[in-house]
Specification:
Residues 1-28 form the signal peptide. By secondary structure, this protein is of the alpha+beta class. The protein is built from seven helices and four strands.
Length: 190
């Protein structure tokens, strides 16, 4: 009887252990992005640089760019170019970023199989991207990821890099000028 209890206990114990070990914790892409931002900020603090604040519009743009890169294979080697913002005019518009007044942001895409956190961080801090991560002009960051791609979009605190919506001053000025002209014509004829 004792061996039966022991066998039953051992069976249930092994079954529970198997079930616990077989269900791995699935990490969401938001967790990957938040962990990377935390890692980048820890790195910047170790370099006596200010931390990067989360920039929602830069995050939206990073997500859109990551979606475009999703189906592309990782390039051979580690040479991935810094992407120009002008290449992503449609994505910028969808995220409410004014193309005409945003010139100082930078897009940093990396491809790491399974987005292994330490390798992703190393790709930003130990490659050609480190010069941007170390640049004090950049005060904000947005992150996006899809499959093996992680995209960091850095923003500055200046009007040309804060990713604010473009001002509609030219159409407004044109309307104001037209209204003034019509008003003057009415005064002449009345």
């Amino acid at each position: 009887m004792a061996s039966y209890r022991r066998s039953t206990f051992l069976f249930w114990f092994l079954l529970q252990a198997f079930l616990l070990l077989s269900f791995t914790v699935v990490q969401s892409k938001d967790d990957d992005e938040n962990n990377l931002l935390q890692g980048l900020n820890s790195y910047r603090q170790s370099q006596n640089l200010p931390i990067l604040a989360k920039n929602d519009k830069a995050g939206c743009l990073a997500d859109k760019i990551a979606e475009k890169l999703e189906d592309q294979p990782c390039p051979a080697g580690r040479s991935i170019a810094v992407a120009q913002l002008s290449n992503y005019a449609d994505s910028m518009d969808k995220c409410g970023i004014g193309m005409n007044n945003t010139r100082e942001g930078v897009v940093l895409p990396v491809c790491v199989s399974k987005l292994v956190p330490t390798l992703v961080l190393t790709n930003y801090t130990q490659t050609q991207f480190a010069r941007y991560i170390n640049d004090t002009r950049f005060v904000g960051a947005g992150l996006g990821s899809e499959d093996d791609w992680m995209v960091v979009v850095l923003s500055t605190g200046t009007p040309g890099g804060s990713f604010a919506r473009a001002h509609r001053s030219i159409p407004t000025a044109g309307f104001t000028g037209l209204s003034l002209l019509v008003g003057m014509l009415l005064l002449l004829f009345v």
